[in-house]
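Ticket #4471: structure output looks truncated?

Reporter: J.K.
Steps to reproduce: submitted the chain below (345 residues) through the standard prediction queue, then opened the result file.
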Amino acid sequence: MAAAGAWPRLPEGPTLRLGATGPEVAVLRRQLSLLGDMPERDNAGANDFDAGLDTAVRRFQRRNGLNADGAVGARTRAALNVTPQEHAPTIALNLERLRWFERPAAGRYVIINTAGFELTAIRDGKVAAAMPVIIGTTKRRTPLFRDQITAVTFMPTWTVPPKIAREEILPKVRRDPDYLAKQNMKVYSGWDSNACEVNPLDVDWKSLQAGALAHRFVQQPGPSNALGRVRFTLHNEFGIFLHDTPAKKLFGQEVRAYSHGCVRVGDAAALAAFVFNGDPEWPPAAIAAAMDGDETKTVELREPVPVEMTYLTAWVDESGTVQFRADVYGRDPALRRALSRTGGI
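Returned output as attached by the reporter:
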């Protein structure tokens, strides 16, 4: 496609959607036909945005990680105007990334594509579950690593990491003395095992410097807990794990980079069912009951589940469809430079 010549460019303008008409619609049709999202036989009324074109736009949006609403606004326009000459090296970069995978020949494993904001659970080479995820912000990036899920904790507590305590919790407590109570958080005098619980109203938070903060904040189980109703234990050097979340609305966003680095999963019950793998003690009904209970309970898995944390901005899905995603962390240029030094690209 890159060798075929100049790419038709969709000019800036108002959002195009079903019912629109004009020469820019003809450009849109041409782009989607070249990309394979629209069959050539559907190109009869070239200037009219009809139902067939709406279907093609939605298909293109889905495989580019955009909201599949059929409306060609700024983000969809930008994706359509990426040329084959630009896509080709992106595909090459991701072919290199695919070489790094260590997929088991059989059994179960989980792949989290942070660039695609998606978790895929694989059983014996087939997709058993797939769900959206929320990853770290561009300032608190989710790292890439291999690990294993070894345990599931229902109704977990959340011990606030020191950095978050200093930079986020302390300023909020200074502004609102009742903040900790509203967030169902207990305060302890320190981080050692014999630290005692303290009354937050007895602490002069305003005069306490962030660098001198020795207190430990622990959010109790409940609907507002930052980890939601389930935590999936990993054992990596970064302190990253998978967990549920009470902020479900964020899963509807195109770009889901909101966390402090840990991965929030869109369907914690489905992931729990996958990792328990038909354990008779943990059928779906028992998982649901534990998620709705008021007891913190940690269950060690009979067999750990491998996890691969990846970053793919291009790949081919199970149906053979080419998928592209935005380089949310800006990692493609660094890999391109590294490969160019070895003659790879």
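Triage note (M.O.): checked the attachment and the full token line is present. Residues 67 and 188 are 44 Å apart (CA to CA).
Status: closed, working as intended.
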